[in-house]
Design brief:
The protein contains ten helices and two strands, in the order ααααβαβααααα. The chain has one domain (29-227). The chain has 233 residues and is mainly alpha-helical. The chain has helices at residues 2-12, 17-21, 35-53, 62-93, 112-115, 127-133, 141-157, 176-188, 201-219, 223-227; strands at residues 99-101, 119-124.
Length: 233
């Protein structure tokens, strides 16, 4: 207890961003055994985001409008952070590092056990790197093929139908690359601004299906299975 007391005092005297960042409390090389907490945290946040995505407030009253905007912003925060935790957990689950490398000649993703000496204890891989290299860990071929087939089926069902002013009746069926780009946008741009980015309801549903695919292909478990031991806060 005295040791911790003294450590905290040193941390909180003449504080700065770098002092917090460089504290030994942030000194860690995450290993495969740490995957569980990342995966469960991500799954829990995504389940909360999914629940918010189903809540709609159609009203002209100011209170209803404000509640709707708050829910949409919470949805963006929970979705983007949940997706990041999930993807970092997938990296760890498969033995890949989420710490930043100290050796620039190594290319991501890298195995933890063979490169522990080349990892920085106080620096993490950027979200954009996790997103960029996830396809090297998770095989998205089946997902992308299924999306193409579903879009072709929907177009076939609507062949010959027209609605004035609308160029395309079907909604898109984005590829894995498209969804990863969108998650990157939400996490690094929309999350930090009071924006509400428009989505088709069908694409919102597809987005959660995509993240479930990441969980299954990356860990062998669904988001529901990963989150079922987390109790509501």
């Amino acid at each position: 207890m005295p040791i911790l007391h003294n450590q905290l005092n040193r941390l909180w005297v003449k504080t700065s961003y770098n002092k917090f960042k460089k504290s030994h409390f942030n000194k860690s090389i995450f290993s495969k055994k740490d995957d569980n907490v990342f995966l469960k945290t991500g799954a829990h946040l995504l389940k909360q985001a999914q629940q918010l995505s189903n809540e709609q407030f159609i009203t002209r009253e100011q209170e209803g409008i404000e509640k709707s905007l708050i829910n949409l912003r919470l949805y963006t925060a929970l979705l983007s952070l949940g997706a990041e935790y999930l993807m970092r957990g997938v990296f760890l689950h498969n033995g890949y590092a989420i710490n930043k490398m100290s050796v620039k000649t190594l290319s991501l993703p890298i195995k933890i056990h063979a490169n522990s000496k080349n990892l920085q204890k106080k620096e993490m891989c950027k979200t954009e790197d996790i997103i960029r290299y996830l396809p090297k860990i998770v095989d998205f071929k089946k997902f992308d093929q299924d999306q193409k087939e579903l879009e072709a089926k929907q177009k076939s069902q609507l062949t010959g139908q027209r609605v004035k002013g609308i160029e395309r009746l079907t909604i898109p069926y984005p590829s894995s690359h498209d969804f990863l780009a969108y998650i990157h946008f939400l996490r690094n741009y929309a999350l930090h601004r009071p924006l509400i980015f428009p989505e088709f309801n069908g694409i919102t549903t597809q987005l959660f299906f995509f993240l479930d695919y990441v969980a299954i292909e990356g860990t062998g478990q669904t988001i529901d299975e990963l989150s079922n031991t987390i109790k509501e806060i």
